[in-house]
Amino acid sequence: MFGTFRKHQTWLWAVIITVIIFSFVIYFSPYSKLNDSRRGPVNLGKINGERIGEEDYIHARNEVYLRTFFMTGNWPDEEAKKEGGQLERETYQWLLLIQKQKQLGIHISPDVVAQSARVMVSQFQRAGINSPEMFVKNLLNPRGLSVDDLERFVRHYVGVQELIATLGLGGKLVTPREVQDLYKREHQEVATEAVFFPASNYLASVTVPPDALTQFYSNRLAVYRVPDRVQVSYVRFDLTNFLAEANKELAALTNLDLQIDEKYREGGTNFLRELKATSLEDARVKAHDAYRKEIEMHLARKKATEFATPLFDMDPLRADNLDKLAKEKGLAVRITAPFDRETGPKDLEVGPDFAAKAFSRTPEDPFAGPIVAYDGVYIVALNKKLPSEIPTLDQIRDQVVQDYKHNQAMNLARRAGADFYPTLTNGLAQGKPFASICLSAKLKPVSVPPFSLSTRDLPEAEEHIQLNQYKQIAFTTPLGTPSAFQPTSDGGLIVYVKEKLPLDEAKMNATLPAFANYVRQNRQNEAFNDWFRKEAEKGLRETPLARPPAPASMGSAPNAKKS
């Protein structure tokens, strides 16, 4: 298998580029549960009567890790590892798909595997790597994965596409008339007007009687309960401390602009859109900034690891060891304000991983890190845990007053909307225009631009309501009539559907072939997923899953998010 990739070394050298930060995530091995020499034989169950071998399961699990990475740009994290259920389910489903490929005689040639791998890996051309060995070292090895795992995954993934093409063939049988009807349904535009009743318009008229405020607070004690919180001490290795060294390394990447120019020639405006750039020059600047930050992150992670190694080796493990070691190294130790698991610390630019690791600390296991965050790399130690509590009204009076006023304003807005509806219907019945009826009632009518079910943004409506909800109201309201008053999280609205607009026949004829391909592809994936759902119900009965839920669509190509 290594020979296949050596054979295609030229393209590997040219395009195997990955984001440095991916190699910094703390390693956890997919082999951990199965490679314990103290345990006896593991019963992994059977798929369609065939017993699952441990090696086959490990291989499939590795491929699921790779599939997750290619489709999301992220590896399964520690929380996913602890929960296990989703990874286990996807592993058994992947094993079933591999078995079906063998049964149907689907074999993918080495050349096709290599070409497909090139396309997949090219999505990560964000940091220069000078050899295939660096690709393996920086991306695969830190996760306990190898080139064999990558080649195996690509072969089986392409095999899944063959399965979809074969077993979903019936779904592609869509008549031209059906395609045209679907196009008209998706692209038929309607013209609407609306009147919105935002709660903010009624705040000024709300008073706050003391007795009513106390009652409001008492009725919402559960809302005001403060969840469990934690405080941690931390040493942060700021990215800015490594700016000079990062600039030096960035300057050594002499072919970086050539790579950016090549991507621009290949992708054009799509490439600029990915980088949120306005021009090629702007793209170069943004790409350089991204590389610089990745290098800074790498250096900060390295320095944090050097600090953490002796800290984690101290015996006994005590939280105050962080202060002692930091003092020896001349590093500052700070303490976070109390924070909960859901929101995390508000005074730091960190992600959810920080809060998860902080809450998992105990006096016996007080340390966590290195934790990669937006502004640096952290080593943390448990400071204290604070139990859940309900603050008194005096402690949170300002918040309760604000909530009370918003609640009352919302009630006033919805009452005004409901009261206006009969006035509107009576006025329309008398032949009065929608806008003039609104203005007579001192309300502001809004003329919303024409839109269809395929419209992706509608700012005039989305200031007050989610687009799909507005579409639902508009397309279920008869022409020439207003909808009933519809409550929303913002207050409420009434939509008046004026007319359906004629389709642009020229545009339809020009885009119909592409739309037909889109419909056929969706139908093909639906047909395949229906087939696979039935096969999973039957084939996975003798696995720990027992009755697996319906799988997610396997039909879309990997499209990793760029970090």
Describe the structure.
Strands 4, 5, 6, 7 and 8 form a five-stranded antiparallel beta sheet that branches. This protein has a four-stranded antiparallel beta sheet with strand order 9-3-11-10. 52% of the residues lie in helices and 11% in strands. The model is unreliable at 1-40 and 547-563 (pLDDT under 50). It is an alpha+beta fold. β1 and β2 form a beta hairpin. It is built from 22 helices and eleven strands. α5 (85-103) crosses α8 and α13 (256-267) crosses α14 (269-275). The chain folds into three domains: 2-171 and 523-539, no CATH class; 189-221 and 395-500, no CATH class; 226-386, no CATH class.
Question: What tags apply to this protein structure?
Answer:
563 residues, single chain, 3 domains, 52% helix, five-stranded antiparallel sheet, globular
Distance between the termini: 30 Å
Q: Mind describing the biggest β-sheet?
A: 5 strands, antiparallel
Q: Mind telling me the C-alpha Rg?
A: 30 Å
- The number of domains is 3
- Which percent band covers the strand fraction? 5-15%
Helix content: 40-55%
Secondary structure category: alpha+beta
Report mean pLDDT, rounded to a whole number.
82
**Count of DSSP H/I helices:** 22
| Unreliable segments of 5+ consecutive residues | 1-40, 547-563
Principal-axes geometry comes out as globular
**Topology, number of strands:** 11
